[in-house]
Design a protein that fits this description.
It is globular, with a radius of gyration of 15 Å. The protein is built from 3 helices and 6 strands, in the order ββαββββαα. A hairpin with a 6-residue loop joins strand 1 and strand 2. The strands form 2 sheets. The chain has a 4-stranded antiparallel beta sheet. A two-stranded antiparallel ribbon has the order 1-2. The chain is of the alpha+beta class and about 150 residues long. The N and C termini lie far apart (about 30 Å).
């Protein structure tokens, strides 16, 4: 269960995920990241998809990166499992399967129950602009991980 900001009241998992779904459907933010359920019939609100638009002036520019996000039964007390579907060369992402290393992404490594799917996607986009990542050569556009 999530704790409502400043109230000390725990919010049930599904209430929290329904809030995140509504936020994603409304298109909150500047449009550089988006998210929603992978399957609209997923009553457990477990499997999500995310999209990150590559930041300008980086090797990710003009590309759309698709991700899978899994919010397990422990969410939001436990961080989601995140995996790129679109092939990407980014520190902290396993090149063989696109799995995001939880220890390499601050929003996952220092997870708090107030964090959200949106926050994870924005953190991954921010990592694309870091000096050690921004000029990394990228796989040909349109390639996806096969697993």
């Amino acid at each position: 269960m999530a704790v409502a900001a400043g109230s000390g009241v725990k919010v049930p998992r599904n209430f929290r995920l329904l809030e995140e779904l509504e936020e994603g459907q409304k298109g909150v933010g500047d449009g550089t990241v988006s998210w929603g359920l992978e399957d609209d019939d997923d009553m457990t609100l477990t499997r999500w998809r995310g999209v990150i638009l590559g930041p300008p002036r980086t090797s990710y520019e003009n590309r759309m990166y698709n991700l899978k996000v899994e919010c397990g039964p422990g969410y939001p007390e436990s961080p989601p499992f995140v995996r790129f579907v679109t092939k990407i060369n980014l520190n902290g992402v396993h090149t063989s399967n696109g799995v995001v290393d939880m220890h390499a992404v601050t929003a996952l490594a220092k997870w708090q129950n107030s964090y959200s799917i949106r926050m994870v996607l924005l953190e991954l986009r921010r990592l694309m602009t870091c000096k050690e990542n921004m000029k990394l050569p990228q796989p040909p556009e349109g390639q996806i991980y096969t697993n």
